[in-house]
Amino acid sequence: MIRLILPTLLCWVLPVLNACSGSTALNAGTPPLLPEGSLMPEQGWESLIKGTDCLVYSLDPDLDFKYGNQNKMGIRTFQGWRVLKELRPTMATRYELAEALAKASRPLGGNPVDCFNPRHGIRSTINGKTYDFVICFQCNSYHVYVDSKLAATVPLSKQPRGLFNATVTDVSLVPGN
Fold first, then answer.
1. Within a 10 A sphere around the Cβ of 76, how many other Cβ atoms?
2. CA 57, CA 1: separation in Å to the nearest integer?
3. CB-based contact 125:53 (threshold 8 Å)
4. Taking burial as the number of CB atoms within 10 A of a residue's CB, which of 31, 46, 76, 122 is the most buried?
5. 76 forms bridges with which residues in the sheet?
6. Which residues of 43-71 are buried (b: 16+ CB within 10 A; e: fewer)?
7. pLDDT at 28 exceeding the cut of 70
8. What distance separates the 2 farthest-apart alpha carbons in the chain?
9. CATH assignment, 31-175
10. Which residues pair with 143 in a beta bridge?
11. Can you give the three-state secondary structure of the chain, one letter per residue?
């Protein structure tokens, strides 16, 4: 009896679970679309989804060197923030991070917080341009740099913080350098 019920039950339950698990685009392996109402710059989104290269960073929020990629002390930095860890995400992880960041890029209301202590970063490249996302969940914003020039400051909810923390601690991801 269970052999007859189980396949029928799975035919009904699996599509529902799949729909509730997040983006169907992620499950299908196709690039997700920029979520409607997102404040993420469209070119930045394109770089995350279709870019030729992508790196994810764990950053030290206390050390702001502002010397570019290498400072005079030889410490690796990302837009002036010391790099603690650099990883090359899989395409599925890349889509997941991009979609989570875009969905969290919404007007927050209230007064903006006057701080910036980033702990995460993403670098992506497309059409010869490099896009850097310097992300601060503590202060609810991220900066977008295009070829090392600040292009936008975007409000950000704390919702994807756990995903970003899990990504930079995932030992199965390949180190970037």
1. 14
2. 52
3. yes
4. 122
5. 70
6. bbbbbbbebeebbbbbbbbeebbeeeeee
7. no
8. 72
9. 3.30.1490
10. 134, 153
11. CHHHHHHHHHHHHHHHHHHHCCCHHHHHCCCCCCCCCCCCCHHHHHHHHHCCEEEEEEEEEEEECCCCCECCCCCEEECCEEEEEEEECCHHHHHHHHHHHHHCCCCCCCCCCCCCCCCEEEEEEECCEEEEEEEECCCCEEEEEECCEEEEEEECCCCCHHHHHHHHCCCCCEECC
How many Å apart are CA 157 and CA 104, to the nearest integer? 5
Which residue, among 22, 32, 20, 29, has the nearest Cα to 90 in the 3D structure?
Answer: 29
Q: How far apart are CA 34 and CA 20, in angstroms?
A: 19
Cβ–Cβ < 8 Å for 59, 119: yes
Name which of 149, 132, 109, 4 is nearest 56 in CA terms: 132
The model carries a pTM of 0.77
Residues 6+ apart with CB under 8 A from 33: 25
pLDDT in tens, 87-145: 999 999 999 999 999 999 988 776 667 889 999 999 999 999 999 999 999 999 999 99
Tokens representing 174?
A: 């390949």
Tokens at 158, concatenated: 């704390």
Query: What are the structural domain ranges in the chain?
Result: 1-30, 31-175
